[in-house]
Amino acid sequence: MDFDPLSLFTPKENVVEDGPTVILEEVKMVIDPVPRDEHLYPLHALDLPILGLRPPHYALEILLKLFAPDETLNFEKKDSVLDEDQNIDPKVVLESRNIAEDILSEALLWFTKYSPRFDSVIKLAYIPSLSGQLKESFPDEYNRWLVSVISNDLSWVLKEKVEGIKKLASTRLAENCGRVAQPEIIRRIHIRNLDKYLGEDSCIRLKEPSLTSDNLGLKTWGSSLVLANRLVNESLRRENYLESPVLELGSGTGLSGFVSSIVGFKTYLTDLPDIVDNLKDNRDLNNIDASVEVLDWTDPHSFLEKYGSIKFKTIILSDPIYSKKHPVWISQMIDLFLDDGPKSSVLIQVPLRENFEKERNLLWSLLEKKLDVIEEEIEDGADDFGETKFCFKRFTVK
């Protein structure tokens, strides 16, 4: 006998319950396809264009320019931090990154189709403010994307554009490899009360080429910022803190010497031949009225031939010791150029590096044989390599 399992099932009777009648109406939903704040969304590594889609040269060029870090302010981290209340002017941002309007319109067509995260001018303008978080959250993915741009033959790109794109990608990659490996930067220096001399645009801009071990003077060091801050604020607080003319020995990128000139003193900035060209560039970049000259501490003849037996009432130095020979050479230069009048002074700012403690003590010993210490202070500060302490001393003629 066949068994039918449905024979065990008894369906309920059809029952219609009395109740209120519900009338269904068509509900229309209006969805904004582009949220108003979409340009503020954090960037993700997956937003980066896929090279397999063959992005045109102008799309790659625009992104690589917008991923460039902002100018460094003092010794702070370079990448911008997004402030949602900040109003960003897209035109200003794009012009500051040297992005032409003609390639922008072409790039937007490609972004709209293949990379919608960057499909509007406002989204592109916010990339510099969002890129820091991208680099921190996805460092490996970001660097791999840059490497892929560098290593790809970019066969679909015009040959004359390939080298420029690879150079931009290489520069962006180098910027992530620490200060020693970084390419040329422009450092913006802000000093309290400098606006009293410069007005609203109270920053000094310093060009720093790639740092090499044999050209340490091409970098701005923490000592120069600490000394420059002192020159500005002490000159406001008391008269005759400096006296003209002023000689800076080992000017480097020129910060302390430029400040001396800005606060009103005739200043001569000096350094070795390999440093002076960049020093002149920085003088011109800031429209500083100061002399920039070669002065070799081991052979000052070229300087003496030009200026004769010139003497200086003020000599300033910041972080001048990175060789065992420097204390003796510095002492000799001070002997040669310091005026012997009662108002003459020497101002020196040095970092308290353990490896150069003997050299510092030797310098103090040599100077104190012929000069009196009238001011001394240990200060906290920092530069690209971290926080440190600095020693300031001011000497006058005995």
UniProtKB/TrEMBL annotation:
InterPro entries reported for this sequence: Methyltransf_16 (IPR019410), SAM-dependent_MTases_sf (IPR029063)
Record-level Gene Ontology MF annotations: S-adenosylmethionine-dependent methyltransferase activity
Domain of life: Eukaryota
Signal peptide: none
GO cellular component, one term: cytosol
Protein name per UniProt: Piso0_000747 protein
